[in-house]
Amino acid sequence: MHDLLGEEGHHTTAAEGGCGGHECSCGEVDAPGYPELDGRVVPHAIRHATIFGALEAVGPGAGLVLVAPHDPLPLLAQVEQRNPGVFEVSYLERGPESWPLRFARG
Questions:
Q1: Which domain holds residue 26?
Q2: pLDDT digits (tens, 9 = 90+) for 46-100
Q3: For the sheet containing 36-38, what is the strand order?
Q4: Do the beta carbons of residue 75 and residue 48 sit within 8 Å?
């Protein structure tokens, strides 16, 4: 992406004022706490792929809050199968309209 923007070879770390947790030169910094992904607004056809991609971006010691439209037991089984023991998952609420869960990476 940076090559397309004419930024080849130019990366800024979070410590240098870049994006919190990843390297780029956009200058944005993540808000404190875990970012939230509202899976309810992601089309069903790409929902799991979107969540897996977001979880892959979570670095050690970081996390993600996922808001699911239902109890995501099949998704949790897939996450554990793909990344055994990587994420500690805790429910922040258990429905009925939303199921927010915290994924923390050790």
A1: 1-30
A2: 999 999 999 999 999 999 999 999 999 999 999 999 999 999 999 999 999 999 9
A3: 36-38, 63-68, 99-105, 87-91
A4: yes
Instruction: Indicate whether 57 and 37 sit together in one domain.
Output: yes
Residues in the chain: 106
Whether residue 86 contacts residue 58, with contact meaning beta carbons closer than 8 Å, is answered with no
Work out the number of other CB atoms within 10 angstroms of the CB of residue 58. Answer: 19
- 55 in the same domain as 23: no
CA distance linking residue 25 with residue 104, whole number of Å: 26
Residues 36 and 19 in one domain: no
Which amino acid is it at 35?
Answer: P
Q: Cα–Cα distance between 98 and 60 in angstroms, integer?
A: 27
* Strand 99-105 with 63-68, pairing: antiparallel
- Nearest partner of 64 among 28, 30, 24, 18, judged by Cα: 30
Q: How many domains does the chain have?
A: 2
Residue 81 corresponds to which amino acid? Q
Query: What pTM value is reported for the model?
Result: 0.73
